Amino acid sequence: MKATLDVLMSRLRMKQLQLLIALDDHKSLHQAASAMAMTQSAASKALQELEGMLDAPLFERSKTGMRPNQFGHCVIRYARLLATDLTSLCQDMAEIRSGRGGHLAVGTIMGAVPQVLVPALDAMQADQPNLSIEIVEDTSLRMLTLLDDGRLDLVIGRALVSDQPASYQYEPLGDEPISVVVGYAHAAPRGKELGFADLAGYRWIVYPGQMPMHALLQRELDMAGLGMPPNAISTSSTFVTVTMLQRSARLVSLLPTSVAELFARQKLLRILPVRMQSRQQTFGIVTRRGGTLSAAAGQLIKLLRAGCSPA
Predict the structure, then answer these.
(1) Considering the entire predicted model, what is its pTM?
(2) 2-79 topology per CATH
């Protein structure tokens, strides 16, 4: 390991890593060389040198092109991380020179937005008004991919959805209670406590199978002696869910309670008095294990910790 590291530190060139990324994008040595403004022979030599340094072939050659093998996938992932980090370095340097501040990219699950992320970002913007902030709201699984690629500084979500949760540093922040919601003018009775069996006549808006709330609904229906509805509408979009609920008196869905309360206060949705049997889902701060956090990411994490600390 030490000998390989010494070789890489002394001989590795960024041009070789750029070539790997181009090969992964184009699947052809000729096209990758053209994209890199290199001759094909020079690109072939650069790849051979890199494979020699790593003492492993990185691609499988076939009539259909070049495909990365397991070593290639590994090296390409780190090549993309290095390229992204260098791009971020250049952007941060340019922003500091121009007085604009810097850049922070954060991913978040839906339920953490109203009460966890937004207050922390409000405090951050008050302290750093020139900071550029990018927010990605998606499933934890998709955001972990963006975190792996260096496109996000941190994720507010779940690490256990990954096949390799040990690759991440995880710090729990709190629970994500879930509510059953309908449009404000929905026909469901008000006041009395309801069970999932009472909702059997309504059509469900559900989340895709890989999302935790899909599994939660499945468990709740199973405990009520019901199966998943065959005529369900599937979407991961909060906007689609809220819009459809608001316009129909026959639809029902799940939303994180913090989000549901936000729309209920605006009289767009109504939270039904349905008691959940399942354990509340936990979420937290997810970062790359061994990665280096920017100053902005470090500050946001401190604010998130403070905001979720008990009074």
Answers:
(1) 0.66
(2) Arc Repressor Mutant, subunit A (1.10.10)
